[in-house]
Input
Amino acid sequence: MGNHNYYHKCRQGVGRPVEIRTNRGTVHRGIIHRVTLNRVYIRPIDDGGNIGGFGFGFGFNSGFGRGAANGFAFGAIASLIFLAFLW
Output
């Protein structure tokens, strides 16, 4: 899926839970917080102990700790999956 398609899918999915896999193979789960022309920002979902299962991965990190939105460049996204429910 091209960057243009990721942008439009993410715009439509603001507020929905997603799973993002990067080109490096890392998996990030969260809720889409906002979308810019270059990036999608997601808030981590706490996965039982660690801070949402997130590392520093690709993209810009707008803060630290719980609730911080992590940004991912569309070019770094290998796959984007909308989750049907929160686990």
Remarks:
- The CA atoms of residues 62 and 69 lie 6 Å apart.
- Confidence is low (pLDDT under 50) at residues 49-65.
- Helices lie at 3-12.
- Residues 3-82 form a domain with the SH3 type barrels. fold (CATH 2.30.30.100).
